[in-house]
Amino acid sequence: LAAQVCAGDGRGEAVVGERGLLKPMIGEPCIFENLLGLSFRISPAAFFQVNTPGAEQLCSLLRSLCSLSQETVLLDVCCGGGTIGLTMAAQVKRVIGIEINEAAVSDARANAER
Predict the structure, then answer these.
(1) Could you give the C-alpha distances from 111 to 13, 29, 60, 95, in angstroms and in order?
(2) Cβ neighbours of 86 (radius 10 Å)
(3) CB of 59 within 8 A of CB of 36?
(4) Which helix (H) or strand (E) holds 97?
(5) Residue 113: burial class (beta carbons within 10 Å; 0-12, 13-18, 19+)
(6) Would you say 6 and 12 are in contact if contact means Cβ atoms under 8 Å apart?
(7) Sign (positive/negative) of CA torsion 106, 34, 96, 94?
(8) What is the spatial distance between Cα 38 and Cα 112, in angstroms, rounded to a whole number?
(9) Rounded to the nearest 5°, which phi and psi values hold at 15?
(10) Other beta carbons within 10 Å of 82
(11) What is the pLDDT of residue 28?
(12) CA–CA separation, 85 and 98 (whole Å)
C-alpha cells in the first residue's frame, strides 16, 4: 500500500507534494507480476497493463507479426517497465527502451537483469 499527497484547485490541475514521490505505508515498495514466463517488478508510479491475460495475448500477437531475428535491434518506445521489449528479447540481438518515467526506467533495468 502506498500513498501520494496531492492538492488540487478542483479544475483538474493537481499540485503533487514532495516531488510527487509515493511513500510506502506497509508491505513491499513494489509488486511483481508474471507475464509469458517472465517476472516483472512494478513500482507504484510505473505503468503496467493490469489485464495480464490480455497483455500476454497482445505481446504474443506482436511477436508473431514482427520479423524478428538475431540481427534485429528492437526499439521499444514508451517502454514502461519493459514488458513488450523483454517478451521479445530472446528473439532479437538487442532491445533499446525509451521511457521518461524514472520509476519505470528503474523497473525496466531490474526486469532486464532478471
Answers:
(1) 33, 15, 18, 12
(2) 23
(3) yes
(4) strand 94-98
(5) exposed
(6) no
(7) positive
(8) 10
(9) -105, 120
(10) 26
(11) 80
(12) 10
Q: How many CA atoms lie within 13 A of 30 on its CB side?
A: 19
Q: pLDDT tens, position by position, for the chain (114 residues)?
A: 555 555 555 555 555 444 555 666 777 888 999 999 999 999 888 888 889 999 999 999 999 999 999 999 999 999 999 999 999 999 999 999 999 999 899 999 999 998
CB 22 within 8 A of CB 41: no
User: How many CB atoms neighbour CB 23 within 10 A?
Assistant: 13
Longest Cα–Cα distance in the chain: 52
Q: Would you state the pLDDT for residue 24?
A: 67
